[in-house]
Metallophosphoesterase
Amino acid sequence: MQEKIYFYYTNDLHSNFEQWPRVTGFLKDAKASRAALGESCWIVDIGDHVDRVHPIAEAFMGKANVQLMNDAGYDLATIGNNEGITLAYDDLFHLYDDADFRVVCANLHSLNNETPDWLKPAVKIESVNGVNIGVIGLTAPFNAFYELLDWHISPQFEALEKYIAQLKQSTDIIILLSHLGLNEDQEIARRFKDIDVIIGGHTHHLLRTGEHVNNTIITAAGKHCAFIGEVILTWDHKKKELVKKEAYATDITHLAKDLQTEQTLQEMQEQAEKQLSKTVVQLDETIEVKWFKHTEIMQQLTNTVKNWTKADCGMLNSGLLLDQLQAGNITYQDIHRICPHPINPVVVELNGDELIEVIRASLTKDFMELKLKGFGFRGEVLGRMVFSGLDVETAFHKNGEEYVKNVRFTDGTLLDPDYKYSVATADTFTFGRLLPEVAKSEVKHYFLPEFLRDLLADTLRREYADK
């Protein structure tokens, strides 16, 4: 006898709730159809379901996301870095207290000698005809952030060696829920022949029909749940082995929305708006925001970040603020709306020559007009860099391109080419190649759990309360 075993999965929703009613409708129908045929079926999430870019996620610190997953009938989930490093310790510790699904992550550990009741390194599930399946979860190792929040991510290969060895003794199939990214998934498949399936995420890759590496099929469904993934495993009970592994990703953007979910989201939105309606400041005049020009609000925010981190100087890009603040009552909801990014302050060390190179690069047209997607940035363009503690003198070439003529500290001191300065900025620039000198800095001090919008609220209270 051959038995088909089904897994439906999502990854990297990032609180894109506009799509969620379609996700719920698809998953409910899939689960009901499998149940009607007496077939085994599990619904799984691979992390980054929570993203505080959305007011619902912000107001309820991810717990509304968990409720939505409960309503959709999830069975298993692992956590992503957006669950792991954008929430304060207690908020993550209690995030899944009310989950109706099991949370699996083998490399997440509390540094406070306590483990949440919901956190399991691996679990076992069983098909309707008795096939035993082991499931392990892993998340990306951003320890520079996690350890500031009293968590630690242990090496993924050590965790796999330990739990695969255990599961081999009592299961027929081993599945990895991996929020590590495609390159890591491929390397794991090369190293661990006992893993049958890797369901992945984190790097937002889309594998429409899966990818076979050695004995393992790797799959992932892109981002924002435009696609839902499906894994179909065929077990031969006579041979006592898997005889077929299939993986597909289905575009659901054209499907009808689940009306009950739409209503739930509307109610959550109203509750979130109420939750975030507390007044921060009363403005007598509108605060202007411009992405390509120097503005007072960006200068004040950059000053706040420099002073709060006790850095020698500071720099922030104007694209961090998405819209102006109208005169009148300004609430947390307004601040979240114009600064929705899960971005933390960071202080890096740069010598004088490196700092000047960073300033030059940040004032180029290509940099300012870059439409960045990712690294925590949720805006449109990077915008003009604003500096604190520095006087940056620029001029224009005949072709209209701006260039840096002089850089001094505001007290008139010239930069020492070899001296190491502490520079406060957005953690966005410590990733990738946007500003290579920042990314390659050997000293990076991140500030968590504060987001830049928390410092924006402080700036508004201090600098604008009486204006």
